[in-house]
Amino acid sequence: MTIMSYDIKNQKLPSPFFFQLFYIFDLSNIMKTFVFASFIAAITVKLVVGQSPTSISGAPTYVPQNNFPWKNKYPTPLSVPEIKPEWASLVKNDTVPQAPVNIKGPDGSLLPPAPGATDTYCHWSFYQCLKPTDIASCQKGNWAVTYDDGPSPYSSKLYDYLKENNIKATFFVIGGQVVQYPDLLKRLYDDGHEIALHTWSHQLLTSQTNEEIIAELKWTELAVKEVIGVSPRLMRPPYGDIDDRVREVLKQLGFIPVIWSADTTDWKLASGAIDVATIQNTVKGWAANASTATQGGISLEHDITEKGVEIAIQSLPVLKGAYNLTLTSQCGNMSHEAIYKEHQDQSSSSPNSVSPNATPSNDGVDSFALMKTSLMLTAIALLVMLFL
Ligand SMILES: *[C@@H]1O[C@H](CO)[C@@H](O)[C@H](O)[C@H]1NC(C)=O
Ligand SMILES: *[C@@H]1O[C@H](CO)[C@@H](O)[C@H](O)[C@H]1NC(C)=O
Ligand SMILES: *[C@@H]1O[C@H](CO)[C@@H](O)[C@H](O)[C@H]1NC(C)=O
Ligand SMILES: *[C@@H]1O[C@H](CO)[C@@H](O)[C@H](O)[C@H]1NC(C)=O
Ligand SMILES: [Zn+2]
Fold first, then answer.
1. Ligand in nearest proximity to the CA of 20
2. CATH classification of 128-343, choosing from 2.160.20.80, 2.60.40.10, 3.20.20.370, 3.50.50.60?
3. 187-220: per-residue pLDDT in tens?
4. Which ranges does the record mark as transmembrane (predicted)?
5. 210 Cα–ligand 2 center, Å
6. Nearest to 280 by CA among 314, 239, 230
7. Residues 273-317 pLDDT 10s
8. What gap in Å lies between CA 289 and CA 285, rounded to an integer?
9. What is the mean pLDDT of the chain?
10. What is the pLDDT of residue 346?
11. Among 98, 111, 187, 219, which one has the highest count of C-beta atoms within 10 angstroms of its own C-beta?
12. 146 lines ligand 1 (CB under 6 A)
């Protein structure tokens, strides 16, 4: 039996964002706390269903449930994936703008543009340049809450709150997280939230070749489709890093980029560079501006740390008091159904007529029935082992 463990400390993580996040976890302590539970669960699953599960590092409350019957073999979570040969022809390379592939510095961030350089390719990260096809804000009075980088073991608390308060949100998920927490993704979809893509390994896309961008998106799409039965069209480039080359690759792959208009900068909580009170004030500012602002908004938050989830929950009543909480699809003048490739031809919604009641297609439902059965058996076996 092999117990796979994604040791984040030993993994090459070129993005500063992930460095900041993962260095705050004391993995050795977490391992001490959870290795026993994981071990018991692993043995139990092995005994009961004869499968090798994945143990989880850095998980506070999550019980490993990785007996999802994957049909495909996926790249290691958070590693830069290779393109599948059959995906290369999806993008006509010679019709893609020849913007240079941006270079990263030693700290993993993009080297700044040369002094006096101009924004030839509508680069958002440096120049906040947007194209009309980018979804980046919302109609006046409307606000879409979005959460990036999950699913994670911390997410469930947020999912519960959203469900109890009947709020729908958009989740930009990372492929490497989806294959570790497929049951969390399925729950999100079943709860009526919008599922969108946030790449496989969270790279700066303008620093990647066309082929690398294809691989990031297609692997993530494949994993998501395996779990929920549909393929998202909405995607968010990590760090908002997009230019016209990346836009064209995304377009040819059938994806629509979503940026944001309001950033909580909750990711700075991990390093202590920002505190909860400051974020609360930022959110109160957005709410206070609702009546005078010419537009609504799309906010950026993350559901991958305990504090991040806490502040996300605290922000919701504030925003709800000032705006109609709506979905990213509406901000982009799309129907809720049309955000999946399989239902792409469904008509646009008029503002404020969101009906977030997607029914999952049968694809994937069967797999989950199987998974639920396995999980039940695992739970029973665990109890038996503990009490004998
Ligand atoms: C929310 O939507 C309703 C109905 O569509 C509208 O009357 C109201 O003005 C909107 N709220 C805000 C804060 O704009
Ligand atoms: C375009 O395709 C060529 C040949 O496959 C490849 O070498 C090149 O890297 C591609 N361009 C980009 C920007 O990815
Ligand atoms: C609110 O609006 C004011 C004036 O338009 C602007 O200066 C301020 O940045 C806005 N605050 C937020 C949090 O958006
Ligand atoms: C949605 O429609 C509004 C009004 O026609 C327009 O201003 C806005 O740019 C559109 N948004 C997108 C992303 O197409
Ligand atoms: Zn992200």
1. 5
2. 3.20.20.370
3. 999 999 999 999 999 999 999 999 999 999 999 9
4. 21-45
5. 6
6. 314
7. 999 999 999 999 999 999 999 999 999 999 999 999 999 999 999
8. 6
9. 80
10. 73
11. 219
12. no
> Counting ligands in written order, which one lies closest to the CA of residue 172?
5
| pLDDT, tens digit (0-9, with 9 covering 90-100), for 233-277 | 999 999 999 999 999 999 999 999 999 999 999 989 888 899 999
Per residue in 63-99, pLDDT (tens digit) is 556 679 999 999 999 999 999 999 999 999 999 999 9
By most ligand atoms within 8 Å of CB, the mutation choice from 209, 247, 252 for ligand 2 is: 209
Q: Does the C-beta of 333 come closer than 6 Å to ligand 4?
A: yes
User: In testing the pocket of ligand 3, which one of 260, 289, 300 has its CB within 8 Å of the most ligand atoms?
Assistant: 289
